Amino acid sequence: MAQLGLRAHLAQSGFASDAFPTKKETLKHVHIPDSIMVHKRQRIVVVGSDTLAASRAQFARESGAQVTQIPSAQFDVKQIIGASLVFVCIGDNAQLARTIASVCAQERVPVNVANASHLSDFFVMSTYKDQSLQVAISTNGNGPRLGSKLRKHVVNAIPPTAGSALENLSKLRTELKHADSSAASNPKRMAFVNRVSETWSVDTLAHLTESNIGTLVKSYLSGSGDLPKLKKGELRVINAGSGHIDDLTVGAFRALSQSELVLADSSVPKEILDLVTGDLMVVPSDAEKPSDSMVFTAIHALELGQTVIRLKAGTSALSAVELGAFSQKGYSPLDDHKAPVLANIPRAAEPVTETKEQEVFHEAEQTFPITEKIVSVKADVAPVVAAAAGTPTLISGQDAAAHIAYALTDMTFVYPVATESSLGKSPAEWSAKGVKNAHGKSHKVLEVSTRTGAAAVVHGAAKDNSAVSVLANSGALNHMLSSMFQISAAKLPVVMHVATQGVNKEFGVYNSVADVAATSFTGFASLGSNTVKESHDLAIVAHVASAVASTPFIHFFDGVRVASEKAIVPVIQTADLGAIVEQAVSHAKAISSIPLPDLVENVMSNLASHVGHHYKLFEYVGAASAETVVVAVGSSATVVEEAVRNLAASGQSVGLLKIRLLRPWSARHFLSALPRTVKRIAIIDDSKIAGSSSHGPLFLDVTAAFYDSVWSLPIPAIFKGHFAQGIHHFNSAAVSSFLQNLSAASIKMDFTIESAASASVVVHEDVSEAIVWDVQSDRTETISGHAVQLLEAQGAKSVQIFTAQSNVDVEPISSTHIRFSKKSTVPAVTSLISTAHIALVNNVSLLEKFNVALSIREGDKGAKPTAGDLAKDLPAATKRSISERRIQIAVIDADKIAFDYTLFRGDKAQYRNLALIGAFTKLWAGVDATEAASDLEKLLTSSATDSTVYRTQLGALRTALKSVVLIDTPREWSVEHGSELPAFFEPTVALKKLTGLEQEEVEVVGKAVPAYEPALPILFKEAYDVKAISRPDANEKTFTVKVTENRRLTPDSYERNVFHIEFDIGSSGLKYDIGEALGVYGQNNEDHVDEFLQWYGVSGAQIIRYDRLNEETGFVESEYKTVAQLFTEVVDIFGKPGKKFYQSLIEHATVMSERERLGFLASGEGADELALLAEEELVNYADVLQMFPSAHPSIEKLLSYIPNIKPRHYSISSSMNVHPTSVHLLVVVVDWKTKSGKSRMGQCTRYLVGLRPGKSVTVSVKPSVMKLPPSHEAPVIMAGLGTGMAPFRAFVEERAYQKSLGHKVGPMVLYFGARHRAEEYLYGEELEAYHFDGLLTHLRLAFSRDQKEKVYIQHKIQADAAMLGDMILKQGGAFYLCGPTWPVPDVKEALVGAFSRFMTAEEANEKLESLKEEERYVLEVY
Description:
About 35% of the residues lie in helices and about 20% in strands. It is an alpha/beta fold and about 1400 residues long. Helix 30 (about 910-925) runs antiparallel to helix 31 and helix 47 (about 1385-1395) crosses helix 48 (about 1400-1415). The strands form eleven sheets. The chain has a nine-stranded mixed sheet with strand order 14-23-32-33-31-34-35-36-37. The chain has a seven-stranded mixed sheet with strand order 16-15-17-18-22-21-27, with helices on both faces. Strand 21, helix 19 (about 530-550) and strand 22 form a beta-alpha-beta unit. Mean pLDDT is about 80; it is low at about 1-35, about 335-390 and about 995-1005.
């Protein structure tokens, strides 16, 4: 897998300075290596705060290093001490840069100063990384762009399996070291590894199995010196043919580049010999055959299991002597690789002259010289280069089209519209991996900005005779019109594969070919595909027809559904496409003078045997004598075909005419495809711009056909229309209802197809269906992919997967619709699933927004990831639907399983997904649960690299399969009442999740804006600078962590609720030290917020925008949130109001009595009464608004009156050395009753106590004075009351960690105070264990109410006066107190008494004060 890396090359060039010694002089005694690799054990310092500094810092973090970024104004020389590397990015302060460089020289720390090579010890350059392989080229700062280009050339020449080969050699070295770990054996082990790498080819090394590595280890231990034979050697004979490299087959090309040994005739051209990556022996020009030593070497290689190629010139026959020598040892040559002539297929041309668009592309590279975007390859979307022709393959529509474009051209230009478009992802991955096209050539993939004049570079490349293809979203076509005219005028055979869609104001997407229709007059032909299979098949048709007719083509497909849908379809492999296309081109050229529509249909006929379907320009489906015919293009045709098929089964006479060739329009072909009985034609005109009142191009074409052509029968009535807005209307049930009503007299000429609420799609009886609901941030999307792998293993021959995504929500969501059948004849279906056998909901919060039950057929199952409280989690509408449909609920606590199995190691998300996929396959009707469980275990076995991890994963899977709980529906659910919820959501364009921007410390007023506005900065990112910040209103650095455990420590029956809560740090970057506090940004109760907003009469979905001026940049920055999000996460609506709030409400009160009352409370006269409200009743902002209902500010005004929620700080109760991936807190619920009897609870403790595992929390870290002594041996005396125990648990854990490292640690004394031992002995078992182990030297417990006389910690301290005096005064110990303030005087008195044994009372008091200055007497009280 290609990844990003960082390599720094050290240049031995110094610099001169009048004020400081030269760099060269300072470093002359320091050994500097040739290169430096940034890794996780280093501390990197980045000085500067501009974009380049951020880029340097981010890159170092991705390399795993510890990074400190310092603004230049805050730089201090001390910050460099101990650093591994320093990056300086302060171009506006040359003097400071020189100063830092000089300090680095004195401290012997390598430094890089941006744009100042004379001050730098090293230069930064981009790298290519594939597992253990890393490639970088330095130009020593002289030409970074050239260095990048050179590196790409080098990378393209590296075998694609090189990274895997190195990874296997690394595994071999590790196993050898385990088997023979002595230091003296290091040279022997390395020599053995070198011999293995020299003996076998890169490809052989890449495919070593665990068993092979084990065999090699045994060979090493035997000491025989012989390498084992891992496979039978292969002798191949390849004929160099014409000697031209382009005439080699893909198989021959691959064999030459992967074999261990090639024995070649001297007359074989050098350009072919250059393909050899293994050992090469060339027969001397004056010899007729290889020498005996050459043959002996080849036979020895074969005996080692290597592949040997005999590369011949002119003939494939071996001499009798040579053949006999090989045959005597049992080796016969395999069939040779013949070289077909690839005539009429465009060859790769010289590099295209850079145009303006390419300059833009390179400019982006120059701006960020460190990094390069190299993406990894996923197996399910890779081009099919190894499968047989027409092999059933799971592939998406856009990847099917891209596969053909990649195979048949040399260069692909990608024009995305959405910021997160995946349109060119797969081709870029194939190109990065070095996959060749059908000509055996490398394929270039360039993503180009979509702007006015787009496609100029396409025109330039095609004009230079390069075989060019384009992948684009339909929105890009409007920017390409001028270039399209030029391409067409020049008769260049360019094929554009276009994903079509329309986008509404809310950034929802829908099927539309309006953008394609708008290109009608450019001269491009337009060919449309309706399904995934057609995307593959008609892409071939487009390329062949374009090449023969010298006409550019647009091959379009539905960008909403078909582009992202995956299905099992026959895919022709790259190696076979060349011959197939050559034959089709040759056949079509003989009739190339006929009209283009006839030529295209002829190509369709000629390719029918290869693609398995006889396509036509206009394809009719339905009754031969139908009176009603629907005309449709794109995926609308697929939905109508479902309906026509279902109606035909019930005896109704209707038909569908599917349009494939939209341009040039052929009225002759259109009319000939219609049944002669047609009386009504309904056009679903997706060529019309949404909302336009004019006729669409398709309607005009169809209507004109009857008047401008020969149609001798009565002209049918022609209707036109479209599907209603909303994906729930885009289904066959809606079409069936429409067609049944089309013959009614009341039908309008302009119709709209709408789906009834109760409509359901007819499903084939052999088809099994499922829906998987995900919140994208949960990382559960892989579950669907694993499910399909299991279905394929069970013989599924027909599979469809479609994932709908909504990316404009605060939490982007997705739903994956899966259909499968073991029959290959099941037709494709475009309607969303409304009769699923099972719905898997991976996040309970989704049930609050969608009625998932509406998409499940009666009597089947709905699955939830956690048990929780069903009555609370499920909305009334969902419960009612579950009851009415008799749906059974299955529950699995996947989060608990993940937590239990990852206590010490492992990714919780991975284990949660494993549990969910196990439960999913167990519950899904039509899936053999036993076989699926077995397949999952085999999958774990095959991918396991660590036996411990494998056993843990296996345990988690088996636990999950046993943990599924089936729950019967309570009867009372059938009478539940509540607001209806949608069954689906509208798919949107692919956007990044939008979060707000950093808030300045100025008063900012929010403004209500339309719902679609927040997506604008994402869609047009060139015009906006979007920052991702977890808590934009915070004036400190924040982190997002996830709850992994929330456990009550006190009994449920006990009046005080003290709980322990743990958070997973994940990749948030959070770091904390002993004694520090965690600032928790609490949130308001969602139910209380909803209740308040409903009372206040404002919609929680309303978007609020905050605009603020950034004084540094002079630009206005904006933050977007919904009202519900603001009042839940940010606004302190249930906080304590001050006098100013009452004053603000006066102007809004419309009732005179309320206005006067507000004025009184805000005046000096009402101070006492205001104090009573604040201190006895503790009224909050919401209470005050309800007390004065006529004072009703607008939502914008109200938000400006109420402050934001402040973080609540809790002492951290864990050591990061012991818990490197988590942070722990000890919290007590704060609750009370007001004087009038109202129950109140602390805002943050209410929030924390209700958090379930998996919930995200925003936090910050606050420094503290509670720090352990610098010396591990210094005594530590701790006094904690109640939850004041928290920091001392961290103290004890840290000392335990230091002890485990072999350090000698000093005595630890803990005084712990609480009310009752049975109820409040917090962390009691841990403390007793540490005490028993001797780490906690003295454990003094004071439970005040367990005996008649109250005992407190100060009494225990007084009893230990002598010991404490000795530890603190003589041994240099430190005393810490954490808890409430009330015992401080008594504790101080006890310590003074202890010190008085060694000095006077006055000296003891002075000593205590001095200890406080030395931070050896530390109080953290509240």
